[in-house]
Amino acid sequence: MNILFTFYVPSGGMETLNRQRCNALRRVGIQGHVLYTQQGAGLQNVSSTPTYVTNYDEDIMQLLHTHQYAAVIVSSDYTMLERLRELGYQGPIMFEAQGLGSRENAERYIQQAASSISAHTQGILLPSTPHLIELFRRYCPSSPQYAFHNVVDIEHFHYQSGLVHPVPIIAWIGRLEPNKNWKHFLEIGYFIHRIRPPIELWMFHDAHIYVEQDRVQFYEMIYHLGLTSCLRLRSNVPHAKMSEFLSVVGDSRGFLLSTSIMEGFGYAVAEAMCCRCPVISTDSEGVRVFITHNVTGKFYPQGNIQQAVNEGIELMHEHDLRSSIRNKAVKHIKKHFSAAQYCTSFKSMLRDVNLY
User: Fold this and answer.
1) pLDDT per position as a tens digit, 271-285
2) How many CA atoms lie within 13 A of 134 on its CB side?
3) What is the CA radius of gyration of the chain?
4) What pTM was estimated for this model as a whole?
5) Burial zone of 127 (CB within 10 Å; 0-12 exposed, 13-18 middle, 19+ buried)
6) Cα–Cα dist 328/297, whole Å
7) DSSP secondary structure string, 185-234?
8) Are the beta carbons of 79 and 116 closer than 8 angstroms?
9) Paired strand residues for 255
């Protein structure tokens, strides 16, 4: 059975999700293909999954004809739904909600997409994120919902021991755009650097995807806060290398800081936990499936810089708490986000549309 997954650009969590779920589904006889309509840095991570990049109708029509996809999963791009029907595809289409940003942005987007979803799909696939579930029930009440966790490939993405970094590292992963809230990362890092030096700040981002206003303000703020000496910027790191970096962060007595306003899932948080890198995060909703405060990670209230600083200092210096969080985080990911669980849920969804 061939299944096609579509999205705009191979970058960030969506590129990770598409690659990891195709690897998982292959084990149960489902061959996943991926179509992106734009080029992106995440193509460097592609290995065994058939992956195509085109935005031409003729190319997409040829893919549909050649591979006879049993179903198409359209992630976020609701304009693709009607387009596929106009290109002659008559099989089941599922709309997948990923990367819709803040609740306000998600609500606006779902309102715009609702008529296309109702007209052209057999259902909606989404992570188990409360605000997404509630919004789709409100605006697409007649469409079946399939809410289950994304897969996290801990078999291949896991802790790697190495040399211990000489100073603690506070890491951040994201794009330079408002929802990722990079400003708070720099502010929190600034105060920890003042109170408990020396530290390093490592930021992993995609240099090709950003909001221009944020990019300008970003470099101004780095200079204004005097962070140039302790900040390390890394762009478009191959996914396979990220487990090494996150393991180094965890072993340095540092942590991943997630400052997002809203996350539908939060792959960066899950993958840090896989690598024994403790996480301090805002309650950005999607990460609730990963973090229980002071058990598998730490929460701080959105916007409360002082509380984030306090939680960070505690995590850096309380050895027993830190060790407990690192151990329990790995066990939590293994238990709840396995490839086998994803395949079971995915096959159940396909059975509902009479495909499995």
Assistant:
1) 999 999 999 999 988
2) 9
3) 20
4) 0.93
5) buried
6) 9
7) HHHHHHHHHHHS---EEEEEEEEEEE-HHHHHHHHHHHHHHT-TTTEEEE
8) yes
9) 170
